[in-house]
Amino acid sequence: xxxxxxxxxxxxxxxxxxxEQKLAQSRGExxxxxxxxxxxxxxxxxxxxxxxxIVDLEEKLEGxxxxxxxxxxxxxxxxxxxxxIMVKNLNxxxxxxxxxxxxxxxxxNAEVEKRINLTPTRAEGPLTVRxxxxxxxxxxxxxxxxxxxxxxxxxxxxxxxxxxxxxxAFNLFMEENGLRERIHTLKRIIATRGPAAVVGPSREVREAxxxxxxxxxxxxxxxxxxxxxxxxxxxxxxxxxxxxGEDLASSHAGQYYSELDVRRPGLLHAYxxxxxxxFKPYALAYDWERGQTEAETSMAVxxxxxxxxxxxxxxxxxxxxxxxxxxxxxxxxxxxxxALLFGLx
Length: 345
What we know:
With about 350 residues, the protein is α+β, with helices and mostly antiparallel strands. The protein has 3 domains: about 20-115, no CATH class; about 130-305, Dna Ligase, domain 1 (2-Layer Sandwich); about 310-345, no CATH class. The chain has helices at about 5-60, 70-95, 100-115, 140-155, 165-175, 180-195, 200-210, 215-230, 265-275, 280-290, 335-340, and strands spanning about 130, 160-165, 235-245, 260, 300-305, 310-315, 330-335. The radius of gyration is 32 Å and the shape is elongated.
């Protein structure tokens, strides 16, 4: 008896179904091989990236190029994440033959976290401090310049009346105006793309600072401190930068702005003007080239009563023509000090 049409159709369907199952199995194997291949390529790429980081770190340690500590720390942390992905991929490829590598990466990560602290050290304290109350140990709060002037005054030497608008005030201003993340962005740009790339973004940050309102309690603190030293008079003051890392081995000479002959109505504008100078392109480049941390570039502002000078001058702690010589260098000028400081004399 010849097979019925339904029988032939059933056999054909069975063959097609079996073929589809084999094709599906084959496709699954192809996908599995493709996945393993992709994982293997990712391991190679991440391995190259980590080796490049090691080479870069060795060059930085030899002083071949400038670098920012924060930028290096972020790259080291990213390399640990890359290493974790490498371990995961390697175990997927090998059928979990190396589970102990997860613990090794965890130990490395814990050690790095212990040694690299990216949380900025921020001073806690009042928004303003009188110069007579400052000592050299207050550099984190008042900046090096004002802290040292306070120390000089405590020795009984003549120093004009004044006060510091502290780094705590700087942090308050930045945070209440939502500027902290924009500053971090500037640091990332200069670390990854170099100083030339930061010109436009730094201008935007400076404009944002100049247009931002001074928080009310900070405004009151600055004006009250001024009223105390003015004692009812119309007292012109100089408002000067006093960054935490200024006037040290990295002197920052000429990097930041000063405002002279400031009266009470102009205090807050001058304060913002000095803060904004922290983010000039060449000041940012200077910090980056010397590996300055965020805490070291926090800005306090010194407010000092102006005197009526007979001459203006600059005292150099070393003779700039012969830095090895053990002598001071004093440059005097018979006009306003601004002309000398800005190179116009």
